[in-house]
Amino acid sequence: MNIKISKANEPRIVAALANVNGRATAHTASCADIFRAAEDAEQKLASLGLTKAQRAGARCVFASGGTVPQSYKYKRVVNRVTLVRSTSGWSLAEIVLCEVWPSTRGGITISLTPAQDALAIVKLRDGYAVQKEVAS
After folding, report:
1. Cα 136 from Cα 134, distance rounded (Å)
2. DSSP code string of 13-43
3. What is the pLDDT of residues 33-76, one digit of tens each?
4. Which candidate, 48, 15, 35, 29, places its Cα nearest to that of 89?
5. Phi, psi at residue 132, to the nearest 5°?
6. pLDDT level of residue 24 (50, 70, 90 thresholds)
């Protein structure tokens, strides 16, 4: 699956979700969730100091439905959605229906390539200085 995240492709994204989810509706991802995840991932990459050209190859994985409360006794059916950043923007790479247990953390996880990691570390280190140890 490789569907560019855009308003023009919204019907294709909705169809892909319906194909994976079947009749499941509670705690599953919506098209709006996918658009929001792409926006959040883009903001995260920007906050790391990566230019748009340097962002290609990054991955975003998110689980729909948020964190499952500890008091919840049963498995919850959610979607695990994988987005991949290309030079032109985010694309939907995979949607998986999976079951999670209480205390399973939801939310977004960003994965960087080694080159992106090195660039982000350089950007981070530009923001601070290390003190020399003072002998007392």
Report:
1. 6
2. HHHHHHHHHTT--TT---HHHHHHHHHHHHH
3. 999 999 999 999 999 999 999 999 999 999 887 766 666 677 77
4. 35
5. -80, 145
6. confident
Q: Is 13:5 a contact under the CB 8 Å cutoff?
A: yes
State the DSSP code for 69: P
| Distance between CA atoms of residues 33 and 19, nearest Å | 17
CA–CA distance, 16 with 85 (Å, rounded to integer):
19
Q: What is the pLDDT of residue 27?
A: 83
Q: Which positions ≥6 away from 34 have C-beta within 8 Å?
A: 5, 13, 17, 81, 83, 92
CA distance 107 to 109: 7
pLDDT of the residue at 118: 94
